[in-house]
Amino acid sequence: MSPHQRREDLIATALRVFAERSPDSVTPEDIAEAADVSRTLVYRYFPNMTELRTAALRSAMDELAPMLVPPSDLPLLEQLRTALRAFIDFADRYAPAYVALLRGGSKVASDHTESVIDEVRDQVLRLLLQRSGIEHPSPRVLLAMRCWISSVESALLIWLKERPMSEAELADWLLDQLLAMLGASGAGEVELEALTATIGSADG
After folding, report:
1. How buried is residue 7: exposed, middle or buried, by Cβ count under 10 Å (0-12/13-18/19+)?
2. pLDDT value of residue 134
3. Is 167 found in the same domain as 67?
4. Which residue ranges does the Swiss-Prot or TrEMBL entry mark as DNA-binding (predicted)?
């Protein structure tokens, strides 16, 4: 196995382990055992767990990114629902890691991991603007969209712990929140009125 392949294999192993256990409880020894290699080999590629967690997160985000880009020929509501379902599935698959990264005070979170997560948030924001046709959003609309993205993250933390509704119901509820937040953020703005009309008519 080449050095690149070995590194990728260790990252894939870490992702499998993080899907079952919170990353803050995983040690290099755990990764070595799961990958059936020596602890020394793990340290050769990743001198500390922070570097391995960041590399694993980057790999996971690269996997997620294309899932958040639904077919453009779908109605707007279905595009948003498809992207949401993909994100919920992803968070569910890596639930322990998702919770550890986004909960307050977690030692797993770092400036490096936050930077990677911010890239995904920015991608979602760009997608919302692009697919909604809002070319020049007002500060209020931008703030509403950013707040909605944060609310999706927070809602998923609760959902993963309590499962108060089905995945489909959660996606629909989050879409309702987006429409409500946008509607309250810029009444009278032409682009926003067009967006809410598009979503509302598709929902009906």
Report:
1. middle
2. 78
3. yes
4. 27-46
